[in-house]
């Protein structure tokens, strides 16, 4: 698998992130097939990569309340 350079992507904070600075994630919309996700408190740390369809399913489940405690 080829390494993906995330050094120049545009990150946005999730609308579900906690407004007081805790439990925040950032995502990038720069890739059509992948969604990079990182901890906003550690922007130089690692990012997780999800397929766009997997991320979409996750967001739908969160919005629908299907994931208690999330």
Automatic annotation (TrEMBL):
Superkingdom of this protein's organism: Bacteria
Segments forming domain DUF397: 10-63
A Pfam family per the record: DUF397
InterPro entries to which the protein is assigned, alphabetical: DUF397 (IPR007278)
Name under which the protein is recorded: DUF397 domain-containing protein
Species of the source: Streptomyces mooreae
